[in-house]
């Protein structure tokens, strides 16, 4: 649960739009092997991938 809350908190700081955050969390992402970001928060290792992806987006990488 802590991993999920951390990812959601980081997503809020990146996107600032609750509707956009929800859509991003539920949409399959090609860099996550077409899994959703929520699916990737199940373990610490893959949750780290989601955090890195959010950090890259925050720094200007494309969605």
Explain what the structure shows.
The structure is a single chain. 16% of the residues are buried. It is globular and about 25 Å long. With 63 residues, it is mainly alpha-helical. The model has no long low-confidence stretch (mean pLDDT 86). The protein has one domain. The N and C termini lie far apart (25 Å). The chain is 60% helix and 6% strand. Strands 1-2 form a two-stranded antiparallel ribbon. α1 packs across α2 and α1 runs parallel beside α3. It has three helices and two strands; from the N terminus they run ααββα.
Q: Provide the number of structural domains.
A: 1
What's the main sheet like? 2 strands, antiparallel
Q: What proportion strand?
A: 5-15%
Taking pLDDT < 50 over at least 5 consecutive residues as the criterion, the unreliable ranges are none
Order of helices and strands: HHEEH
Describe the SSE topology.
Layout: H1 2-15, H2 18-26, E1 28-29, E2 35-36, H3 44-58
Antiparallel strand pairs: 1-2
Helix pairs in contact: 1-2, 1-3
């Amino acid at each position: 649960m802590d991993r999920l809350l951390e990812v959601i908190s980081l997503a809020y700081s990146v996107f600032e739009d609750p509707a956009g955050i929800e859509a991003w969390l539920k949409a399959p992402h090609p860099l996550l092997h077409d899994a959703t970001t929520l699916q990737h928060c199940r373990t610490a290792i893959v949750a780290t991938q989601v955090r890195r992806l959010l950090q890259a987006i925050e720094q200007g990488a494309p969605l």
